[in-house]
From TrEMBL:
GO biological process: coenzyme A biosynthetic process
InterPro entries hit by this protein: CoaB-like_sf, DNA/pantothenate-metab_flavo_C
Source domain of life: Bacteria
Record-level Gene Ontology MF annotations: catalytic activity
Any coiled-coil regions, as ranges: none
Domain (DNA/pantothenate metabolism flavoprotein C-terminal): residue spans on this chain: 4-214
Protein name stated in the entry: DNA / pantothenate metabolism flavoprotein
Short name of one Pfam family: DFP
Native species: Solilutibacter silvestris
Length: 219
């Protein structure tokens, strides 16, 4: 029987949208497909899955409890409220910065003004807060989308955010990462690493869950 059978698995997925005014926002290219594939694969292993989803166009895998959010602040609130869990997998591409003020009316062009400065403030780091929570899940897994020096940045995040495992994927290249059906992940933990893929996201999700099960058994 799977180690995940009966375990509570909490997954975050998709982008966040940070509103600038009633019609504009700052978003990113995350489709949410990796997180949804992980949620579906975890259900198939008998886990109880809660999926906190940013704005995506995907249907909910059968058996998954889905909570829809829009902003990084809402995602933080939803994820922290969904604890405790045995495993947290943070696949969401959470905005690192959000506008300090949301304009109540659509921002207008001003004649003679050729630049616009938006003041952004840092969002709260959900992954680090989950890893530091009193009800810390047994295994906290993060994702790191990078365009270069993938492994170096990923190892840095593993340590800085005090998480157990990080899945790094190279983005910005064709057939990989955001907006793609396929993915390649370099999964790193303190004393090891493994490459998953290139393969479709469901196969990569199965590989990641295998590694999570191994860590839960051995750690
Ligand atoms: O530091 P960076 O944003 O590159 O780290 C990516 C990882 O951190 C992802 O797992 C993402 O879900 C998580 N993250 C988060 N909250 C933030 C920013 C990133 O949980 N505010």
């Amino acid at each position: 029987m799977s180690t995940l059978h009966g375990r509570r698995v909490l997954v975050s997925a998709g982008p966040t949208f940070e509103d600038i005014d009633p019609v504009r926002f700052i978003g990113n290219r995350s489709s949410g497909r990796m997180g949804f594939a992980i949620a579906e694969a975890a259900i198939a292993r008998g886990a109880q899955v809660t999926l906190v989803a940013g704005p995506v166009h995907l249907s909910t895998p059968s058996g998954v409890q889905r909570i829809d959010v829009r902003s990084a602040a809402q995602m933080h609130e939803a994820v922290m409220s969904a604890l405790p869990a045995d495993v947290y997998i943070g696949t969401a591409a959470v905005a690192d910065f959000t506008p300090q003020h949301v304009a109540g009316h659509k921002l207008k062009k001003v004649p003679g003004q050729d630049t616009l400065v938006l003041e952004l403030v840092k969002t709260r780091d959900i992954l680090a807060d989950v890893a530091g929570a009193e009800t810390r899940p047994r295994l906290v897994v993060g994702f790191a989308a990078e365009t270069c020096d993938v492994e170096t940045y990923a190892r840095g995040k593993l340590a800085a955010k005090r998480i157990d495992m990080i899945a790094a994927n190279r983005v910005g290249i064709a057939g990989c990462g955001f907006e793609s059906d396929d993915n390649t992940l370099d999964v790193l933990w303190t004393d090891g690493q493994r490459r998953l893929g290139p393969d479709n996201k469901r196969a990569v999700a199965e590989g990641l869950l295998d590694l999570i099960e191994e860590r839960m058994t051995n750690a």
